[in-house]
Input
Amino acid sequence: MPYATDKIPSPTGDLTLVATDAGLAAILWDDDARMQARYAPRVAAPDHPVIAAATRQLNEYFAGTRTAFDVPLDPTGTEFQRAVWTTLLAIPYGETRSYRDIARAIGRPTATRAVGAANGRNPLPIIAPCHRVIGANGALTGFGGGLPNKQLLLALERRVLTSREAA
Output
């Protein structure tokens, strides 16, 4: 069965949303051919209920009016990857965690590199906020959407939190 899909504009560039009837399967960057190929065949379906909900929620996130997502998710990955991605979902808006923090949270404190690899294969960037994962020294590290987009997303969240605190 083909995946339902739609392409939406965002401050990080065009994003391709990919869904099953169970939930959002992926958010793809245009320049990630590996992930693009993984989700085929696809059929354009902007009115699919999961696609429509994800589009609305992502637009709200980028507008600074949404800090948490509740669209149903349907990522495909190994048990370890899914554990990492589930832990990403628990990182509060506007906060960061290190790869070491994630490894400890899943009960695998020595698996920092494996956590980095799973983070890099996260099919749901932004919603499963891999952009909130940084190096132990506080440095921004790799991001599938590119470091400029990681900086953009973290700055957006800081701005929203700062404006809410000031209000």
